[in-house]
Amino acid sequence: MNETDLRLALRYAGVKDPDHSPFQLMLQAMESELEAAIASKSTWRVFQIVKQADQIRLEPGGLILPGKMASTMLADCDQVILAAGTLGHGFDRQSSLFQAQNDPAKALLFDAAGSALIERVLDELEENLHALPEFQNLYFTDRFSCGYGDLPIALQKAIGQLLNLPLRCGITVLDSYMMAPTKSITALIGVSQNPQPARIRGCGYCSLNKSCTYRKKGTTCHGE
Question: Do residues 152 and 175 make contact, with C-beta atoms less than 8 angstroms apart?
Fold first, then answer.
């Protein structure tokens, strides 16, 4: 884990002062177990945007993205990238072992590390996309996911089908719209001819912004 991953994992674990926490050493000691458990995969696909009144349709496939979140994020975009990533089932198996060992601190830190590392999988995918010839001189919006703002989490099912996630990444979208393996993410990235503002990191579109414990403390989950 790099320093950014470490700090983010400690924040996900609820550690108030990551720089002066005994959990930092505990998390660092788990690095070999994390590396052994993780077999990350990712995939992506580009769709054309068709705008219709108050909603957006993706083609091919005809997926409708309703609501303000999608229309705002993709207002200046002609295309959208659907992306997904996972840490794999090995992470879930190791997490279950820690829980069975009745070591709640280790289980919590391992889970928090997974949450940080799956974000890195998507970060690295996005960096690789930026470098592709087809995206040269184009701009990406912030990455956003089902469940952000008013974008329904129920869209996970359709995204899973469009990306063929069981075959490409071994990801299954459950009837609850959660995913297995648990450390899996789907995301949307708008593609525009023009520079795009950073909207997500301002917390304004997060579905937890009214109840977020970090906001109540005057900070954010990403440390800004």
Answer: no
Residues facing residue 63 across a β-bridge: 58
Q: Which amino acid is at 142?
A: D
What the block records as the tokens of 52 is 């219709």
pLDDT in tens, 5-20: 998 999 999 988 877 7
CATH of the domain spanning 3-216, picked from 3.40.109.40, 1.10.3720.10, 3.40.718.10, 3.40.50.410: 3.40.109.40
Which of 6, 7, 11 lies closest to 214 in space, CA to CA? Answer: 11
The 10 Å Cβ neighbour count of residue 146 is 22
**pTM for the model:** 0.86
Please compute, for residue 121, the number of CA atoms within 13 A of its CA located in the half-sphere on the CB side: 25
Q: How confident is the model at residue 221 (pLDDT cuts 50, 70, 90)?
A: low
CA distance 196 to 161: 28
Sequence length of the chain is 224
- Per residue in 148-164, pLDDT tens? 889 999 999 999 999 99
Evaluate the CA torsion angle 68, 73, 78, 81 in order and state its sign. negative
Domain boundaries, the chain: 3-216
Gap between the Cα atoms of 7 and 16, Å rounded: 10
Torsion angles phi and psi, residue 103, rounded to 5: -120, 85
